[in-house]
TrEMBL record:
<dbReference type="Pfam" id="PF00171">
    <property type="entry name" value="Aldedh"/>
</dbReference>
<dbReference type="GO" id="GO:0005739">
    <property type="term" value="C:mitochondrion"/>
</dbReference>
<comment type="pathway">
    <text>Amino-acid degradation; 4-aminobutanoate degradation.</text>
</comment>
<protein>
    <recommendedName>
        <fullName>Succinate-semialdehyde dehydrogenase</fullName>
        <ecNumber>1.2.1.24</ecNumber>
    </recommendedName>
</protein>
<comment type="subunit">
    <text>Homotetramer.</text>
</comment>
<dbReference type="InterPro" id="IPR016162">
    <property type="entry name" value="Ald_DH_N"/>
</dbReference>
<dbReference type="InterPro" id="IPR016161">
    <property type="entry name" value="Ald_DH/histidinol_DH"/>
</dbReference>
<dbReference type="InterPro" id="IPR016160">
    <property type="entry name" value="Ald_DH_CS_CYS"/>
</dbReference>
<keyword id="KW-0496">Mitochondrion</keyword>
<dbReference type="InterPro" id="IPR029510">
    <property type="entry name" value="Ald_DH_CS_GLU"/>
</dbReference>
<dbReference type="InterPro" id="IPR050740">
    <property type="entry name" value="Aldehyde_DH_Superfamily"/>
</dbReference>
<dbReference type="GO" id="GO:0009450">
    <property type="term" value="P:gamma-aminobutyric acid catabolic process"/>
</dbReference>
<feature type="active site">
    <location>
        <position position="278"/>
    </location>
</feature>
<dbReference type="InterPro" id="IPR010102">
    <property type="entry name" value="Succ_semiAld_DH"/>
</dbReference>
<keyword id="KW-0520">NAD</keyword>
<comment type="similarity">
    <text>Belongs to the aldehyde dehydrogenase family.</text>
</comment>
<feature type="domain" description="Aldehyde dehydrogenase">
    <location>
        <begin position="39"/>
        <end position="501"/>
    </location>
</feature>
């Protein structure tokens, strides 16, 4: 039962910005973060601005925390774990169910925050809030299904038991592109298992994390169970290192770039931490001659241009078999022209918002120019959009080659690059030619080919005749340099539990 029925925005949040030429009161934190059940400022008094990527305006100022606040949060989180781990699974399920209901009740306000700080279109932000809430719902049910085992003993006078117990304090480090759902996917599993959390959100999008903390407070989750450390880009390396090296932190869960993931993995080695990593991808999208071209184009549009191409499972390389190549390219170009509308995420009918910052735009520009210099053909787009310096035109390139940056790196922008191939074997070789292995997609109406290719692709997740596959029920994670561990589904709990073996003797 919810003890509070409304999202108490007005009491804690003060900010006014101009949207659609109208003044709206919006929920942005007034220089406070959430540590040990209290809303506090950084001890230094320093703050940093959160910018709206669509127009560069300051949405809010939040505390610029450092090692001192991190230590305080971890100590309180560790103390809270001593009691939280002894709550019953039914009690934890109730708290998580409250979180689910609160998030759904306040979905519009939470979506508005995502669009303001991250630039995502409002429709996509609403979708993220629903997706994020589904993890609270799912793990509220999984909390009561964390079972142990009784193993047949080789000795008549002994019994062998295996218990699953919460691992301890979880350091949660999340990216900017899904500022709500990447937190809920980790935190819901951790809390269900009986762990407590210190959340370090991305410096670009800390407001969504603070909103989740407010939900936790309203859901009466005990102080110290959920903490948020907001940090500027300058302080982020120090805080991340402190979480990895702190002896009271039992596990680190990180979603972000492969380079940062490797660094956190290395820093966690000194205390032999459990580490869960969901890292960068370079997803192939293969369209075979047997595919339904119309369905493949629909899937490519969904997979490539969601969040302006800024998702870890976005299509990065589109491989099309030669017989249907020209038809596919023509249909994709038409779909892009008819379906994609660039603009600020709060405006109606906009499908493609800004990139997160100017550095992201520069990377996309570099990839496009590199491809053109190496022989790619420009069909659509190719430059910064007239909407502003953080907007990039939806771009279609053909004649993609293996030596181009787009083939080697994750572009993270609205660029569809198409490569022609001749045989199934060639497509698989190209698809597997990177060290990334997060996700992949392919379209085929040949059932034998579907099974062959699904087995051959070196990725952790595959969409077959489907451009979007994420849901709370599915295990999310990659292989090769795209990650360790799985999130979501029943496997998500495993990242936050440890196995204890007990041999009970003297049963003569």
């Amino acid at each position: 039962m919810l003890l509070k029925s409304t999202f108490q925005i007005k009491n804690r949040f003060k900010c006014t910005i101009r949207v659609w030429r109208t003044i709206h009161n919006l929920s942005v934190p007034d220089g406070k973060t959430y540590i040990n059940g209290k809303w506090v400022a950084a001890k230094s008094g320093k703050t940093f601005p959160v910018l709206n990527p669509a127009n560069g305006e300051i949405v809010a100022n939040v505390p610029d925390c450092g090692d001192e606040e991190t230590n305080e949060a971890v100590d309180g989180c560790y103390d809270a774990f001593k009691t939280w781990k002894n709550t019953t699974a039914k009690e934890r399920a109730g708290f998580l169910r409250n979180m689910f209901e609160l998030q759904m009740k306040n979905s519009k306000s939470l979506a508005h925050i995502i669009t303001l700080e991250g630039g995502k279109t409002l429709a996509e932000s609403v979708g993220e809030i629903t997706y994020g809430a589904s993890f609270f719902e799912w793990f509220s049910e999984e909390a009561r299904r964390i079972y142990g085992d009784i193993v047949p003993s080789p000795f008549k006078n002994r019994q062998l038991f295996f218990f699953r117990e919460p691992i301890g304090v979880a350091g949660i480090i999340t990216p900017w592109n899904f500022p709500n759902a990447m937190i809920t996917r980790k935190v819901a599993a951790a809390l269900a298992a009986g762990c407590t959390c210190v959340i370090k959100p991305a410096e670009d999008t800390p407001l969504s994390a603070l909103a989740i903390a407010q939900l936790a407070e309203e859901a009466n989750i005990p102080p110290g169970v959920i903490n948020v450390i907001t940090t500027s880009r300058n302080n982020t390396p120090s805080v991340g290192k402190r979480l990895c090296e702190h002896t009271k932190v039992a596990t680190i869960s990180f979603t972000g770039s492969t380079a940062v993931g490797k660094l956190l993995f290395e820093q966690s080695a000194s205390t032999v931490k459990r580490v869960s990593l969901e890292l960068g991808g370079n997803a192939p999208f293969i369209v075979f001659n047997s595919a339904d071209v119309s369905k493949a184009v629909t899937g490519a549009m969904a997979s490539k241009f969601r969040n302006s191409g800024q998702t870890c499972v976005c299509t990065n390389r589109i491989l099309v078999q030669e017989k249907i190549h020209d038809d596919f390219v023509a249909a994709l170009a038409k779909a892009m022209q008819n379906q994609l509308k660039v603009g600020e995420g709060l405006k109606p009918d906009v499908t493609t918002g800004p990139l997160i910052n100017e550095n992201a735009v520069r990377k996309v520009e570099r990839h496009v120019q590199d491809a053109l210099q190496k022989g790619a053909n420009l069909i659509l787009g190719g430059k910064i959009h007239s909407c502003g310096k953080t907007f990039f035109e939806p771009t279609l390139l053909t004649n993609l080659k293996k030596d181009m940056l787009i083939s080697k790196e994750e572009t993270f922008g609205p660029v569809a690059a198409v490569m022609k191939f001749s045989s199934e074997e060639e497509a698989i070789e190209i698809a597997n030619s990177t060290r990334s292995g997060l996700s992949g997609y392919f379209y085929s109406e040949d059932i034998s080919q579907i099974w062959r290719v699904a087995k051959a692709l070196e990725v952790g997740m595959i969409g077959v005749n489907e451009g979007i596959f994420s849901c709370a029920e599915a295990a999310f994670g990659g292989v090769k340099e795209s990650g360790l561990g799985r999130e979501g589904s029943r496997y998500g709990i495993d990242e936050y539990v440890q196995i204890k073996y007990m041999c009970l003797g003297g049963l003569d």
